């Protein structure tokens, strides 16, 4: 008798199955119309992007500083500058070692091209660019992230297709 009662708990009525919330979710999943290898986006170089915050006021030099960093990233990664994105926030509130002063924090994301040599070149280049604005090379942290193609979106899809 006990077995019969337990078994009855697992029997679902047709009404319960049709109203199960995942049914509608699964019926709307977008399946790729082309295989990833045939999608032209898969052969594109992908996104190198730098998000950087600095404590100093860059004033009228901000755009040129961004362009210099964009050019640097393109030359180091070998990717077309048309794919490089740079976000630069000046006048940011950053403390370093518990003290206020000139400093910079950043995150660099790229599909491939993240390695010791390239990271070092970008770190040195950004340090040189920011030095003229009073930010010392010992007050700049940039974290480097190698992004998988399927984890980078652009133009309404990912670089994996």
From TrEMBL:
Q: Which Gene3D superfamilies match?
A: Macrophage Migration Inhibitory Factor
Keywords annotated in UniProt: Cytokine, Isomerase, Secreted, Signal
Q: Keyword Nucleus: yes or no?
A: no
InterPro entries from the xrefs? Macrophage_inhib_fac (IPR001398), Tautomerase/MIF_sf (IPR014347)
Please state which protein family the record places this protein in.
Belongs to the MIF family.
Q: Any idea which GO molecular function terms this record carries?
A: cytokine activity; dopachrome isomerase activity; phenylpyruvate tautomerase activity
Q: EC no.?
A: 5.3.2.1, 5.3.3.12
Could you tell me where this protein is found in the cell? Secreted
Q: GO CC terms for this protein?
A: extracellular space
Reaction equations catalysed: 3-phenylpyruvate = enol-phenylpyruvate; L-dopachrome = 5,6-dihydroxyindole-2-carboxylate
Name under which the protein is recorded: L-dopachrome isomerase
Q: Does the keyword rRNA-binding apply?
A: no
Signal peptide positions on this chain:
1-19
């Amino acid at each position: 008798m006990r077995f019969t009662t337990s078994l009855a708990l697992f029997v679902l009525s047709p009404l319960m199955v049709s109203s199960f919330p995942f049914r509608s979710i699964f019926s709307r999943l977008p399946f790729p119309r082309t295989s990833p290898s045939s999608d032209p986006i898969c052969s594109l170089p992908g996104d190198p992007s730098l998000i950087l915050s600095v404590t100093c006021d860059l004033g009228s030099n901000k755009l040129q500083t961004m362009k210099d960093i964009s050019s640097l990233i393109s030359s180091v990664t070998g990717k077309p500058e048309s794919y490089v994105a740079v976000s630069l926030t000046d006048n940011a509130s950053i403390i370093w070692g518990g003290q206020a002063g000139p400093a910079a924090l950043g995150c660099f994301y790229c599909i491939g091209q993240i390695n010791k040599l390239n990271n070092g070149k970008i770190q040195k280049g950004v340090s040189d660019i920011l030095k003229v604005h009073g930010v010392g090379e010992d007050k700049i942290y940039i974290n480097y992230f190698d992004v998988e193609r399927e984890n980078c979106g652009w133009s309404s899809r990912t670089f994996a297709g």
